Amino acid sequence: METSDILKRVRQIEIKTRGLSNNIFAGEYHSAFKGRGMAFSEVREYQYGDDIRDIEWNVTARFNKPYVKVFEEERELTVMLLVDVSGSLNYGTSVQMKRDMVTEIAATLAFSAIQNNDKIGVIFFSDRIEKFIPPKKGRKHILFIIRELLDFKPESSRTDVGQAVEYLSRVIKRRCTAFVLSDFMDVKDFRTPLTVANRKHDIVALQVYDRRIAELPDVGLIKVRDAETGFERYLDTSSKKVRNAQAAWWKQQQARLTDTFTRSNVDSVSVRTDQDYVTALKNLFARRS
Around Cβ 44, how many Cβ atoms within 10 Å? Predict the structure, then answer.
């Protein structure tokens, strides 16, 4: 993609996703993701019922009457986007490719984060850590992230979700909210590393998938290629047995994934590339509020 085309696409995504963040998700994001705890705000005179452990002794001594510390929720978060850049994301049969939807969702979350004065960082992963962008604030930082999402060229085409969440815990020391954006086409079992990482951080899984992986169309003999391994084969989609086998495989894959998220205590949402991700995000935020 030419530089001018990238900048144009960055601007288009900014206009769309920033608008969504401002007009739709402002309240939902704020209430769905909590801060680290309570931060000191001010002092006021002691009132009946106040906890004596909150007495501010220096101010009390100065004014010769009791004052207490007032705390408020510390809202500032560190938000990390763990973005799958493996080969299977370069696929889409209807409205858009999975990678395009992941980019828009990531940008929407990023603008929602800075609207809430949160820091935002990114980990690009395949079956290795492709790139780490440390968390920072500001529109300029987000535009850099969007540009990377559009133009990043991974070294590997395969997927390892477990390695990505393990890396998150190593590089981000304080508790953060982390969104894993992927189709989760991972042959490895990543439940254990996900569970361990979720004990330290607040992890949310966002699955993006294409409808044709769940239901093959009846279009006769087709050649299919695994984008991660390069393996090719022919499928006779006119065969009901073949279509039913694909549907059964997908149902089994989704059941395994749901079980992984449930046992790891990770909130999750799935959205198809021909569906509205805004509705999916709103439902996710509502469940967490």
Answer: 13
The letter for the amino acid at 22 is N
Note the pLDDT tens digit of each residue in 41-77: 578 888 887 888 888 898 889 889 998 887 555 556 8
288 vs 22, 33, 100, 110, 281, CA distance in Å? Answer: 19, 8, 26, 18, 11
* Contact predicate 210/94, CB 8 Å: yes
The answer to whether the Cα torsion of 277, 281, 282, 287 is positive or negative is positive
This prediction's pTM: 0.81
- The 10 Å CB-count burial string (b at 16+, else e) for 129-154 is bbeebebeeeeebbbebbbbbbeeeb
Distance, in Å, from the CA atom of 243 to the CA atom of 81, rounded to the nearest integer, reads: 35
For a pLDDT cut of 70, what percent of the chain falls above it?
Answer: 88
Q: Helices 277-288 and 98-115 meet at what angle, rounded to 10?
A: 40
- List CB contacts of 284: < 8 A, sequence separation 6 or more: 32, 204, 206, 267, 269
Question: Are the C-beta atoms of residues 93 and 210 closer than 8 Å to each other?
Answer: yes
* Separation CA 106–CA 192 (nearest Å): 25
